Amino acid sequence: MCIRDRVKNKKRSIAVGYWAKSKYRICFDHFKEYVHTEKRKQLELRKAVEDRGKQLRKTAVRVWLAVGLYWTGKKMGVVNSLGVDERVHAAVLKCALFWKNKALK
């Protein structure tokens, strides 16, 4: 092998090295973008789940309040004629007020 061939091989290996580094850089940039996108998706999903939970809690509070206020508005004789114990009525009202205060925070 002559000197000219060695120089060509050396230049070729340097060029291949630079090409490989540029490909690694491109792959790394794409990987960073992928990781950033996945983190953003996780945050959006977490926020959506949290918002859905809030919506469900508000709906539950409305229902508990409706039931609690319904039983509060009724006379105890009507409640007793339905076979509902006064303690159950108090528990439902207590739950309704608890969730109302929790939802207003």
Describe this structure in words.
- The chain is mainly alpha-helical.
- The chain has 3 helices and no strands.
- The termini are far apart.
- The model has no long low-confidence stretch (mean pLDDT 81).
Label this structure with key terms.
105 residues; 0% strand; mainly alpha
Question: What would the average pLDDT be, to the nearest integer?
Answer: 81
Shape: rod-shaped
User: What's the total count of β strands?
Assistant: 0
Fraction of residues in helices? over 70%
Our estimate of the beta-strand percent is under 5%
Continuous helix count = 3
Q: What is the rounded Rg?
A: 35 Å
Terminal Cα span: 83 Å
* Major beta sheet summary: none
Order of helices and strands: HHH
The residue ranges in which pLDDT falls below 50 over 5 or more consecutive positions are none
Task: Determine the structural class based on helices, strands and strand pairing.
Answer: mainly alpha
Summarize the structure.
This protein is mainly α and 105 residues long. The protein is built from three helices and no strands. The longest helix is centred in the middle third of the chain and has 71 residues, at 3-73.
List the helices and strands and how they pair.
Blueprint: H1 3-73, H2 76-81, H3 86-104
